[in-house]
Amino acid sequence: MSIDTGFRPERAFDVQTSTIDSDLYLVRGTDAFRLGEVEREIWRLCADGNSVADIAARIADGFQVDAETALGDVRGFVEQLRDAGLVEEA
Question: Of 23, 37, 78, 82, whose CB has the highest number of CB atoms within 10 Å?
Answer without folding.
Answer: 78
